[in-house]
TrEMBL record:
Record's keyword terms, sorted: ATP-binding, Cell membrane, Membrane, Nucleotide-binding, Repeat, Translocase, Transport
One Pfam short name: ABC_tran
GO cellular component: plasma membrane
Keyword Nucleotide-binding: yes
Membrane-topology annotation of the record: Peripheral membrane protein
Record's protein name: Nucleoside ABC transporter ATP-binding protein
CDD domains the UniProt entry points to: ABC_Carb_Monos_I (cd03216), ABC_Carb_Monos_II (cd03215)
Coiled coil: none
Organism: Anaerocolumna aminovalerica
One MF annotation (Gene Ontology) recorded for this entry: ATP hydrolysis activity
């Protein structure tokens, strides 16, 4: 690893038109052949800084130097042209294209040039072989696993000559085994002189893979450390400005009067002739958090959609306590069965982006009697409820009249959680409730889920973060290929690695064993 900087930021400041200061004079140098982690809470300014490096934003002041020369990036094309690439948390691939078509996308023929498909394929295959990427160039991206799609994204950048790779939450959707493989690949990139900027909220992984760590808090660079010199507790304190506890057993109360909260009886759901849920059965109790884990695309999303009324199962029944909801509309599921839902995609399903915080908070129960007065909305009551939730959930904003899309991702998520929590549900579906959320906000959301559990409510927690699932859940099921392949009620000795084997289909419990375990714990 060289001590010279391949990429250097000097006094970067970013002030938006609305007066929000995202970056306050940040100076960081990135060395050639190093893995440099950037950590900080949501709203700390990490995303803005990466957007500036990648040409998506222009700094208000300051300069970017690449290989000693000052740069003036006006778009990602400029940064890619000099050798800086970024793999976004949500992949930017065309599912209907092949692997090769996605890799060469952007190098289409111009008036005076053409792409040599044979040469392009040879170059891509050589790069894939060099880094042991087991990819078929002719396979459609839609047929790939999440981990393989990520490899395509990385290969796209290598194909275009990137020497600096920005990876935004690269392990968020990977199994432990896929994460291990990614880390092997990152170390090989590093050995070959590439610089990796690694953005993550998983401090254990940051500690494992990085050479140096820079901590950003409230738009400022707090410090940069050699990774070997700091532990995860110190990093989290630097990020948040206070100590954060990770243990939840002390706040979980014993619930004695439990009853069946959810019954799923032989649900089958098919799409385009492909069974995505296969005779799936499940029972949960009140006063429990049941974690649902699995590699993305193994039926979790379809299960949520069927439970919340977005889709209809071809056969089977769903009961919330003793009420069958199989054919209920969403409004009936919310109001009659008292089900609340924290969606995975907060921007698309969770909020109306251009509306205010206040409007988003009341969206699910605007017709409540206490929020209306003689056929008109009671704005005073709405403001009172909204302001109290903003305060209780520590949403960082100017007021509840603030446009919600101006908030950081973590604060938007707090608004969504506040709304669903305030619905006073009997049953909560929480789908990736802390994805892309910083440690402090994640801890806060976990505590709110446990508060509901302690009130004898039932929570179904869908999470790609196995550490979260193990820490927060009382029991865990694993989904693979539209089926439940494992059920665990004793989590004390269960590890992320063990869960990973079930998630990949390497291990599975028999259907009879799963049903027996469920029945034992329900009766």
């Amino acid at each position: 690893m060289s001590n010279s900087y391949i990429l250097e930021l000097r006094d970067i400041k970013k002030v938006y038109d609305n007066g929000v200061v995202a970056n306050k004079g940040i100076s960081i140098g990135f060395r050639e052949g190093e893995i440099h982690a950037i950590v900080g809470e949501n709203g700390a300014g990490k995303s803005t800084l990466m957007k500036i490096i990648f040409g998506l934003e222009k700094p208000t002041q300051g300069a970017i130097y690449y290989k000693g020369k000052e740069m003036n990036f006006t778009s990602p094309l400029d940064s890619i042209a000099v050798g800086i690439g970024m793999v976004h948390q949500h992949f930017m691939l065309v599912p209907s294209f092949t692997v090769l078509q996605n890799i060469v996308l952007g190098d289409e023929p111009t008036k005076f040039s053409f792409i040599n498909s044979k040469a392009s394929k040879k170059k891509a295959e050589e790069l894939a072989k060099q880094y042991n990427f087991q990819l078929s160039m002719d396979e459609k991206v839609s047929d790939l696993s999440v981990g393989m799609k990520q490899k395509v994204e990385i290969l796209k950048l290598l194909y275009k000559g990137a020497k600096v790779l920005i990876l935004d939450e690269p392990t968020a959707v990977l199994t432990p085994q896929e994460t291990e493989q990614l880390f092997v690949e990152l170390k090989k990139f590093k050995e070959n002189g590439h610089t990796i900027i690694f953005i993550s909220h998983k401090l254990g992984e940051v500690k494992q893979i990085s050479d140096r760590i820079s901590v950003i808090r409230k738009g400022e660079l707090i410090s940069t450390h050699n990774t070997r010199d700091v532990d995860t507790e110190t990093i989290s304190e630097l990020m948040i400005g206070r100590k954060v506890e990770y243990e939840y057993s002390g706040i979980k109360q014993e619930i004695k009067s439990k009853k069946v909260a959810l019954t799923i009886d032989n649900i089958t759901y098919t799409q385009n002739g492909i069974p995505l849920l296969k005779d799936l059965s499940l029972k949960t109790k009140t006063g429990e958090i049941l974690g649902v884990v699995g590699v993305e695309g193994n039926g979790q999303s379809e299960l949520v959609d069927v439970l919340f009324g977005y889709k209809r199962a071809e056969k089977g029944r769903i009961l919330i306590q003793d009420m069958e909801i199989s054919n209920f509309r969403i409004k009936e599921i919310r109001e009659r069965a008292k089900v609340a839902y924290i969606p995975e995609d907060r921007m698309r399903q969770g909020i109306a982006a251009s509306a205010s915080i206040k409007e988003n908070i009341i969206a699910s129960y605007y017709d409540r009697e206490e929020l209306n007065h003689k056929f008109m909305m009671n704005h005073k009551a709405i403001t009172k409820v909204s302001d109290q939730l903003v305060k209780d959930f520590n949403v960082l904003c100017q007021s509840s009249d603030t446009e919600i899309q101006s908030l950081s991702g973590g604060n938007i998520q707090k608004v969504v959680v506040a709304r669903e929590y305030n619905a006073n549900p009997e049953f909560l579906i929480a789908e990736q409730p802390t994805r892309g959320v910083d440690i402090g906000s994640a801890r806060f959301i976990h505590e709110k889920l446990i508060e509901l559990r302690n009130k004898n409510k039932s929570i179904l927690l869908f999470s790609a973060d196995l550490g979260e699932a193990l820490a927060v859940s009382d029991k865990i099921i694993v989904m693979y290929s539209g089926e439940i392949v494992a059920y665990f009620d004793n989590l004390a000795d269960l590890t992320e690695k063990e869960l990973g084997f079930y998630m990949l289909g390497v291990k599975r419990q028999s259907p009879e064993e799963i049903r027996r375990l469920m029945d034992e714990k329900i009766n």
